[in-house]
Amino acid sequence: MVSGDALYCQKALCRQIVQAGGAYLFAVKANPPDLLADITLLVRDSPPGETFATTATSDKHGGQLERLAYTATRRWRRLRVS
Predict the structure, then answer these.
(1) What is the reported pTM?
(2) What is the pLDDT, as a whole number, of residue 79?
(3) 24 pLDDT band (50/70/90 cuts)?
(4) N or C terminus: which one in the chain shows less Cβ crowding within 10 Å?
């Protein structure tokens, strides 16, 4: 399992991880906006039978309460990236 932020969302890296039999989980925020929009579409208008694993965390960071929600799917392995 490889995890990272949106900087790791590179087609070649993802392809290499999957070809090696691994999996990846990348955190995505509002930047880059196109990637976030695509992911949001998959979650909101998911195909029939699609399932998601979800979790959330809360932490005080820099004097502010930070709440993060995580959603993961296995579907990414079946998506074709052009």
Answers:
(1) 0.56
(2) 47
(3) confident
(4) C
- Whole-number mean pLDDT of the chain? 80
User: Residue type at 67?
Assistant: R
Cα separation, 82 vs 13, in Å, equals 14
Residue 14 has a CB neighbour count (10 Å cut-off) of 19
Q: What DSSP string runs through the chain? A: -EEE-GGG--HHHHHHHHHTT--EEE---SSSHHHHHHHHHHHHTPPTT---EEEEEEEEETTEEEEEEEEE-SGGGG----
Distance CA(80)–CA(13), nearest Å, equals 14
Domain of 39, in residue numbers:
2-78
Q: What is the dihedral of CA 24, 14, 67, 39, to 10 degrees?
A: -120
Structure tokens that stand for 65 in this block: 């309460």
Tally of domains within the chain: 1
